[in-house]
């Protein structure tokens, strides 16, 4: 038996559920007034505007920002989508909505025509006041102060970045060039790197190996790199 093609999702599918939610709160709702998808009015209160879209897009964010010139009560409404990727996208876009001061609704459309749609309001429009993270600031400034010079270029990928940790590890590698095992405490004192023991024992880059308790030397990989650098 030939399967009937599934009807593509459209903004019209979102309208009825969104309208029902607003009407349940006492609003009179009308669509396509001027260039606005949905407008809802209740008494003398400022109007509520909702922009309908079948998915998140830069155009949608441009539209809701433009509507803020009309009212502070602006929402965007998109279909609810399940799955890890969709959940992650929703989380990021929700954060952006809060930053812009606009609301966000998702509409869960039923697979069974006899079932009802479900509208979830994830955030309401309100001024955004970001919480500052002192810990994140300290971490950034610590890396800034420890990194020597400016070895990277803006826009590089994480795999190619030269961090302060890598710079310290390279200093340890250069120190051990053509040397036998050396005590970690001596290396730390000579190089003035407090985390020397951790760098050697963690061996993140595979350049070092433990010769005996507290003593380290270059691994085969470390010796190969050391020869190239020196």
Mean pLDDT: 88
Report on the biggest sheet: 6 strands, mixed
Poorly predicted sequence stretches spanning 5 or more consecutive residues: none
Strand line-up in the sheet with most strands: 1-2-3-4-5-6
* Helix-strand topology string: HEEEHEHEEHHEHHEEH
CATH topology of the largest domain: Trna Endonuclease, Chain: A, domain 1
Q: In what range is the share of β-strand residues?
A: 15-25%
Percentage of residues in helical conformation: 25-40%
Q: What is the level-2 CATH architecture name of the largest domain?
A: 3-Layer(aba) Sandwich
Decide which structural class fits the backbone.
alpha+beta
- Tell me the span between the first and last alpha carbons: 73 Å
In terms of quaternary structure, the protein is single chain
Summed up, the domain count is 2
Q: Helix count, per DSSP?
A: 8
Write a compact overview of the structure shown.
The protein is an alpha+beta fold. The chain is built from 8 helices and 9 strands.
Task: Walk me through the structure.
The protein is α+β, with helices and mostly antiparallel strands and 230 residues long. It has two domains: 12-123, Trna Endonuclease, Chain: A, domain 1, CATH 3.40.1350.60; 161-229, Winged helix-like DNA-binding domain superfamily/Winged helix DNA-binding domain (Arc Repressor Mutant, subunit A, Orthogonal Bundle), CATH 1.10.10.10. Helices cover 39% and strands 20% of the residues.
Helices, strands, pairings?
Blueprint: H1 12-24, E1 28-33, E2 36-41, E3 48-52, H2 58-67, E4 73-79, H3 84-100, E5 103-108, E6 118-123, H4 134-146, H5 164-175, E7 182-183, H6 184-191, H7 196-202, E8 208-212, E9 215-218, H8 220-229
Parallel strand pairs: 3-4, 4-5
Antiparallel strand pairs: 1-2, 2-3, 5-6, 7-9, 8-9
